[in-house]
Design brief:
CATH superfamily of the largest domain: P-loop containing nucleotide triphosphate hydrolases
Strand content: 15-25%
Number of helices: 16
Number of domains: 3
Strand order of the largest sheet: 5-6-7-3-8-9
CATH topology of the largest domain: Rossmann fold
CATH class of the largest domain: Alpha Beta
Shape: globular
Structural class: alpha/beta
């Protein structure tokens, strides 16, 4: 279905290799999860597989991609032309009844294929559903999906899982996808393609495992531990052997220096013995060349929140009550009220288009000017709070003191940013790297109230659990919107936003 032959991808800006001489075949019935840390090139690889010329501006490449059948692609971020298209125009190139059927299965309102609404007016989740419906209507053989779970509500996530698993069972499509949703990978993937950047991103490695995600991770951890133990034992045994050798060498050397000149026969014997000892030492040195290298792997890292940052228990951080929640002249919900006190972690869920992001924006407006708390905001659209033309270093310099910037650079390095990435425009970074920058903002600011709209949406399945733990261990207050099932489970209180207000889940 899709055959990769000796593919190499290298970033032009810093000559960093993303993939070297990689060959792989994606077969019908494969559900291949493409995993790896933020900025490792997962989206670039998907884009290249769909249209190699789409990466001409920033990548050099070699190798070939053989496509058998129709290939459909879901980008992580639609281009401006797509966003400004009406739904009627967007679906004009596919069979309307097929698209309507797909939209219906995804829980969307009938008749959207003839609507004059633009994609930009849809909620994030509705937009993803429209794109998925369009892809299905193309009747493809190969699906390349970049973050298909972004902003999807819980019911649609389950539908997507069923869709992928049904496609695998029936061998209907060949699917390769990138997602932050660890649970989706666990429940659907039968192939893992793991892209890693090693030795401070100077070396790349791609591992392919035809198994499930949990089995792959357990095998990876087991192999890493076993290889580490073998490599360490080789060195420990070598050190002991060399210590014994040094003792013999020193004894023979001492005997040579102290032997009587009147004993030429003994001198010859000692000289012969020294030659043997030196030869043994050289043999030991050659054995060292065959030692296993200590294994390398790329681990997820996110900066931690300072444990001293808290909100006094019982302090009322938020107390809002709205007769109506509106957006664009539409009433999204009525009688919305929410009270949050110090130290609580609250999560808001609900169907796509229910108004969760709108509500979070209202909450942010309520908190941003407060002097009794220090609030920080991670919106769904990072461009609302980040100037994409600035570099991470310039962004930090504009907001923090010199000592903070020095500390921030250290943090960025620890979070696997290269020197070049620290000096590149934020707009060229991956979504996960931008999210890391926002987390660093929150840490440096000493924020004790976090307002988070889908905080794990751009992190890999490897990073997402680390981010979830960091937020769970945060001693301040968290008010979040999320569809990430693991993140939702980590919160103290969970509400569902409906047309009738917030209901405790």
């Amino acid at each position: 279905m899709l055959e990769l032959k000796n593919i190499s991808l290298t970033l032009k800006k810093d000559s960093r290799p993303l993939i070297e001489d990689f060959s792989f075949t994606l077969e019908r019935g494969d559900a291949a999860a493409l995993i790896g840390e933020e900025g490792n090139g997962k989206s670039t690889l998907l884009r290249f597989l769909y249209d190699k010329h789409s990466v001409d501006g920033y990548c050099e490449y070699s190798g070939s991609v053989v496509k058998r059948g129709r290939v459909a692609y879901l980008p992580q971020i639609p281009d401006e032309k797509t966003m400004s298209s009406t739904l009627r125009a967007y679906f004009s190139d596919v069979e309307a009844y097929v698209a309507e059927s797909a939209l219906s299965r995804l829980g969307m309102t009938p008749g959207l294929t003839s609507s004059e609404r633009t994609l930009s007016t849809l909620s994030g989740g509705e937009r993803v559903k429209a794109q998925i419906a369009h892809i299905v209507a193309e009747e493809p053989d190969v699906l390349l999906l970049d973050e298909p779970t972004n902003d999807l509500d819980a019911d649609t996530l389950l539908m997507l899982e069923d869709f992928i698993n049904d496609s695998t069972r029936r061998r209907k499509y060949a699917i390769m996808y990138v997602t932050h949703d660890e649970k989706l990978v666990e429940n659907t993937a039968n192939v893992i393609v793991h892209m890693e950047q090693l030795i401070r991103k100077t070396k790349c490695r791609v591992t392919v495992a035809r198994c499930g995600y949990r089995e792959y991770m357990e095998r990876r951890d087991s192999d890493f531990e076993r290889h580490t133990q073998i490599a360490q034992k080789q060195r420990d045994d070598y050190d002991k052997k060399m210590e014994r050798w040094r003792q013999i060498y020193e004894r023979v050397d001492h005997d040579q220096r102290t032997i009587s000149r009147g004993d030429p026969s003994g001198g010859r014997l000692l000289k012969k013995k020294m030659h043997s000892v030196i030869a043994t030492g050289k043999r030991f040195e050659r054995e060292r060349e065959d030692f296993l290298d200590f294994p390398e792997r790329e681990d997820a890292i996110i900066t931690r929140f300072d444990e001293s940052v808290t909100v006094p228990a019982g302090k009322r951080v938020l107390d809002i009550s709205m007769p109506e929640l509106t957006a664009g002249g539409r009433v999204l919900a009525k009688n919305v009220s929410l009270t949050v006190t110090g130290g609580e972690h609250v999560c808001i869920t609900g169907k796509n288009g229910a108004g969760k992001s709108t509500l979070l924006s209202v909450i942010w407006d309520e908190l941003r000017g407060r002097r009794d708390v220090t609030a920080a905001y991670m919106p769904q659209n990072y461009g609302d709070v980040l100037d994409f033309s600035l570099t991470p270093t310039e962004h930090l310099a504009a907001n923090y003191k010199k000592d903070d910037i020095t500390r921030a650079r250290t943090y960025l390095g620890a979070m696997l940013f290269t020197h070049e990435e620290m000096l590149s425009p934020i707009g060229t970074l991956s979504g996960g790297q931008r999210a890391k920058l926002l987390f660093l903002d929150m840490v440096l600011r000493g924020a004790n109230v976090l307002v988070l709209d889908e905080p794990t949406r751009n992190f890999s399945p490897l990073s997402s659990p680390v981010v979830t733990r960091a937020i769970r261990d945060f001693h301040g207050c968290v008010i979040a919107v999320s569809h990430d099932r693991r993140f939702v489970e980590s919160c103290d209180r969970v509400y569902t936003l409906t047309a009738d207000g917030l209901c405790m889940s």
